[in-house]
Automatic annotation (TrEMBL):
It holds the Pfam family MNHE. This is Na+/H+ antiporter subunit E. PANTHER family: NA(+)/H(+) ANTIPORTER SUBUNIT E1, NA(+)_H(+) ANTIPORTER SUBUNIT E1. GO terms for molecular function: monoatomic cation transmembrane transporter activity. It comes from Zeimonas arvi. Keywords: Cell membrane, Membrane, Transmembrane, Transmembrane helix. It is found in: Cell membrane.
Length: 161
């Protein structure tokens, strides 16, 4: 069974995603969904990194709520800055030193930063020790770095390491 479905959760996700994207559970879509769900993980299995090991799953819920809160607050802050004088906006690139080493955690951190309005992950050093972040408005680089590390990196380390 493992050879036929090497990634059952991924296969299930692909199956449901196909049906949702097509907004139809017709026989043809069910067959195509099954083909994609079984075939894509087999075809691209060599590209997959080791599956993540979740150490503290309850921290995921807390982090998710924090990210949702930060997205809402950042939307308000970006709107306020855009509607205000342009001279008050100080965009900047900031290198954030990383303590997290798990590639899934680093990817999650980059995704969280990019999802939060006003910030964007733009580069990762080859040794995965620094993440380049562009921020829409930076008053204090050290405060931005400390906030990212405390709010996102620390919980991600609890989850993945």
């Amino acid at each position: 069974m493992k050879r036929l479905l090497p990634a059952p959760l991924l296969s299930a996700t692909l199956f449901v995603a196909w049906l949702m994207l097509n907004q139809s559970a017709s026989a043809g879509n069910l067959v195509l969904a099954a083909i994609f769900a079984a075939g894509l993980p087999l075809a691209f299995g060599g590209f997959r990194v080791d599956p993540p090991r979740i150490r503290r799953p309850l921290v995921i819920a807390r982090l998710g709520l924090l990210v949702l809160y930060d997205i809402v607050m950042s939307n308000i802050e970006v709107a306020r800055r855009i509607l205000g004088p342009e001279s008050k906006i100080t965009p900047r690139f900031v290198w954030v030193p990383l303590d997290i080493r798990d590639p899934h955690g680093i990817a999650a951190l980059a995704g969280i930063i990019t999802m939060t309005p006003g910030t964007l992950s733009s580069d990762l050093t080859e040794d995965r020790r620094h993440l380049l972040v562009h921020a829409f408005n930076v008053d204090d680089e050290q405060a931005l770095v400390a906030s990212i590390k405390e709010r996102y990196e620390t919980p991600l380390r609890e989850i993945f390491e």
